[in-house]
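Hey,
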Amino acid sequence: MKPRPGHHRSDLVQIARQAMLDHGLLPDFDAGTLREVEGMNEVPGERELEVSDLSDLLWCSIDNDDSRDLDQLTVAEELEDGAVRVLVAVADVDSRVPKGSPVDAHARHNTTSVYASCCIFPMLPERLSTDLTSLNPDEYRLAVVVEMVVRDGAVERSSVRRARVRNHAKLAYNAVAAWLDGEGPLPPAAAAVPGLDANLRLQDRVAHDLRVERHEHGALDLQTIEARPVFHGEDVTDLHAELPNRAKQLIEDFMIAANGATARFLASRGIAALRRVVRSPERWQRIVEVAAEHGETLPPEPDARALQAFLRKRKKADPERFPDLSLVIVKLMGAGEYAVEVPGREGSGHFGLAVRDYTHSTAPNRRYPDLVTQRLLRATLAGEPPPYAAGELAELALHCTRQEDAANKVERQVRKSSAALLLESRIGARFDAIVTGASEKGTWVRVFHPPVEGKLERGFQGLRVGDKLRVELVSTNVERGFIDFVRVG
């Protein structure tokens, strides 16, 4: 397919839709699913409203600038004994999406929303994910609330309940991070809510303590570059690298804590559940070799604390190349997966987060495993039998892992095609670059601006990962996402 001038976004959408089909994902909702959503009432039945009312708490959402499917709200409260009560409200999707319904069937097939840069293929129809089950500002919504008491970065105790909540301010990562760093004003939506500024400061402090405690136990501090296209109308005009910031870290830290509390809650009730696991790296020896190439020594057996110490040292010594080292470690660790944990049996845990109890529960609008976990929670809270047997959960774990991999491939394909589209008019241009991969399969380089990776077709002899060089762009293939360079100078 040759892109048409002035229709670049349209071409990427076509590539994305074909990639969805190629990887066994459904890009569209069928008629039955849409009819079911059209028939939904604005307000759930009275039985669903018999829950705690926590709507007066200073709840707020912090997400991407353009997010419309708001899954979580957060709030914190200092206690008299010096601890802090942290609450995470998760959108109640199960009350709107019954197991076995047409909407559920579509969600179960894809298992995740696919964010393809040029477009989104939501797991749930938009009337649900961006309206009826989204925790939108100034709307009363049902939620599953995880409450945690945190002291010195450790969760002392936690509980789970259903409640009615209200989002008092829809906030965005970049604006909140700039304010926390003293580089921007308090976002207007937060300034309009008395006391929210102090609450955000408290949340930031507790999140930092949680993160420090996790890292002391060996949680890995990794930083990879994921560039997304910037559009001006239909044209791709640039690629923007998403960078970590304090607001993103705040939400990440609270979600990790909430997911751990949820896993422990179900286990304490004897409920089999889906866990998110990253097993101890089978390619640890290669990680040891990578460390040795940087003059560092790691123990012969997998050790998260030792690996984190190595990563922290390299990030400080060479921040420019740290994203590439992070990517190498991520690949050697292996992908995360879903597994069933039966209470009483030792689980695999999450090597990268240095936690044993971990599930996915905080994004039911976007991830099917989170919806499954929510159904288990709601049944347990209601004193009802689990809606899933262990055998069905095992099948779902395998299916969700496979579909997540498929979704990642779609997103990666569109990112690569976007990069090729941006550069197709710049054949012959020269860039500063760094070697990110060198093996029998080929040599790969990343140019610094725009942050694009491509294959080095000529002049790769003697190069090693981390070497800097000058390259010239010689060809692109938008449909396949290929970008080819040769070494110059």
